[in-house]
Design a protein that fits this description.
The protein has a domain at about 100-200: Glutathione S-transferase Yfyf (Class Pi), Chain A, domain 2 (Up-down Bundle). The protein is built from eight helices and five strands; from the N terminus they run E-E-H-E-H-E-E-H-H-H-H-H-H. Helix 4 (about 100-120) packs antiparallel against helix 5. By secondary structure, it is mainly α. The strands form two sheets. Strands 2-1-3 form a three-stranded antiparallel sheet, with no helix packed on it. A two-stranded antiparallel sheet has the order 4-5. One of its GO terms (biological process) is glutathione metabolic process. Conjugation of reduced glutathione to a wide number of exogenous and endogenous hydrophobic electrophiles. Its EC number is 2.5.1.18. Belongs to the GST superfamily. Mu family.
């Protein structure tokens, strides 16, 4: 996640909010969707007031009020992967062949498991105590991703898909947590560099619209500044 409590509104009434926003932002930029990024900021410690969200949560007529959400006209979507899939389908970024679609399905779920492990660490009050064990176990997960990617350019195969936007962010966050974590996985390092070199992504990352930090909410023990 990038930033604490935020709302992103596209000029043609696309909206989503908060948690897990960075991959969605990257996907919108890559697909050329115009949007306005309106951010809500949680209050200071120790209370971290979240009335910026809770004050309007039940006024938005969402079936399952949650963050992030995405609105396209009369269509309102919650759940980050559902949002990613919706945008991806519009632009053919959900796998070109049946094999690629299956690989996308697998990586979508593996990426969520990977994210959840990282989130549990970053928001745990005992972050400093738990970090060492987490990093000791990290190579086994990276090895699985490395083997699954193999010598393919993207996780689906030959074609870029929405899971690459998710995995880029997750691997990038891990290189911030542990800068040398990919040294034994050259294909993952190459993958990160290849993603950043995509013309529209490179342009976005060089712009003042790009949010490099924070990685997490103010309440996190890592990546909150």
């Amino acid at each position: 996640m990038r930033s604490g409590c935020e709302k992103i509104t596209a000029s043609n009434v696309h909206t989503f909010i908060v948690q897990l926003a960075q991959p969605i932002r990257l996907l919108l930029e890559y697909t050329g969707t115009e949007y306005e990024d309106k951010q809500y900021e949680c209050g200071p410690p120790p209370d971290y007031d979240k009335s910026c969200w809770f004050g309007e949560k039940h006024t938005l007529k969402l079936d399952f009020p949650n963050l992030p959400y995405y609105v396209d006209g009369d269509l309102k979507i919650t759940q980050s992967n559902a949002i990613m899939r919706y945008i991806a389908r519009k632009h053919g970024l959900d796998g070109k062949t049946e094999t690629e679609k299956v690989r996308v399905d697998i990586m979508e779920n593996e990426a969520m498991d990977f994210r959840n492990r990282l989130v549990r660490l970053c928001y745990n009050p005992d972050f400093e105590k738990l970090k060492s064990d987490y990093l000791q176990q990290l190579p086994q997960y990276l090895e699985q991703f490395s083997k699954f990617l193999g010598d393919r350019p993207w996780f689906a195969g030959e074609n870029l898909s929405f899971v690459d936007f998710i995995m880029y962010e997750l691997l990038d966050q891990h290189t911030i947590l542990a800068p040398t974590c990919l040294k034994d996985f050259p294909n993952l390092e190459k993958y990160l560099n290849q993603f950043k070199a995509l013309a529209k992504i490179k342009e976005y990352m060089a712009s003042d619209r790009f949010m490099d930090r924070p990685l997490n909410n103010k309440t996190a023990k890592f990546g909150n500044a």
